[in-house]
Amino acid sequence: MYSKNFLKSLFTAGISIAGISFSALISSQQKVHAYSGNPCAAEGSTASEGAMSADCDGTPEVMKVKFFEFGLCTSDPLTSSTFSRANCEKAWESEAGITVDIPACMSTDGCTLQGEVIRPANGTYSHVYLIANTHWDIKGRVYYNNETYYTTSVDKAESAFYNYSTPTNNVNNYETYTNKMTSMGGSGWGANGCFDWSESIDGQTPKAVLTNNLLVTATNQAECTASTKLIGSSDLATPITITSKTRNYQLTWDVTYKGLWVDHDAGNDPDGIGAGPFSVDLTVSE
After folding, report:
1. What is the spatial distance between Cα 85 and Cα 20, in angstroms, rounded to a whole number?
2. DSSP state of 120
């Protein structure tokens, strides 16, 4: 269960020599590679009139993530639990980090980020990586039992190191929740698997690890709990080639029925709401 509460989020980023713009492209690649989980009931649907019986993926209204770095790689930078840039090129970075509200960027013409844009060396790249913080602000709602259930700012701790938002059906308590990533649910979740996550999604394999500020991967639960950075990587469905003519490249994600993970343990309604996982594709243009 712990591995589900990571990030099924996908958004669209366009990077050019002028800066970075997070835009809302709905490309054929995105439709092909979108995550196919269990979508939560839509508002007003027949399913929303009935009881909740399984975990589902919803669409967040707010999903704020602070990003520090984005890069392209010729091989997987997370072949083990250790992150390596040896075969990577930075494409953008911000030492202080830039916070992006992904749903807001997708519903407008995009979001322009400040920071240092770095042109990657010419070549063919098969992987991408992102470095983000471990505290994600989320806000969203789901529909079951002819009710609407909202996120609150109240923690629902399932264990000493795993938590998510306590849902409410009172709209007056609808609030943003800060989801702290402390257990990724690796090959053996818990104290020995808290630091890593990997999942096969539509032929791609996104991965992530929890690290400290020096990007050293956590090795136990205490270090996972104290982690400050999350590094995610993914192979691309189709490798991209950067040439001297390349002027723009776009990283395509989507949070629709992905970015909000809704937990069901028992009963008829949601037990908790947290941030969901990711899948990535990239295109370039001249």
Report:
1. 21
2. P
pTM of the entire predicted model: 0.83
- 267: tokens are 């009963």
Q: Report how far residue 79's alpha carbon sits from residue 224's, in angstroms, rounded to the nearest whole number.
A: 19
What are 59-81's pLDDT values in tens digits? 999 999 999 998 999 999 998 78
Whole-number Å distance between alpha carbons of 286 and 274: 39
Confirm if 234 and 253 have CB atoms less than 8 A apart.
no
Q: Give the C-alpha separation, 230 to 223, whole Å.
A: 13
Q: In Å, how far are 7, 63, 77, 106 from 195, measured between CA atoms?
A: 14, 22, 16, 30
Please report, in angstroms and rounded to a whole number, the separation of the first and last CA atoms in the chain. 43
**Residues written for the chain:** 286
Q: How far apart are alpha carbons 64 and 136 in whole angstroms?
A: 6
- Quick: pLDDT tens for 17-71: 334 444 333 222 222 233 447 899 999 999 999 999 999 999 999 999 999 998 9
8 A C-beta contact, residue 189 and residue 158: no
Would you say 195 and 175 are in contact if contact means Cβ atoms under 8 Å apart?
no
CB atoms within 10 A of CB 41: 19
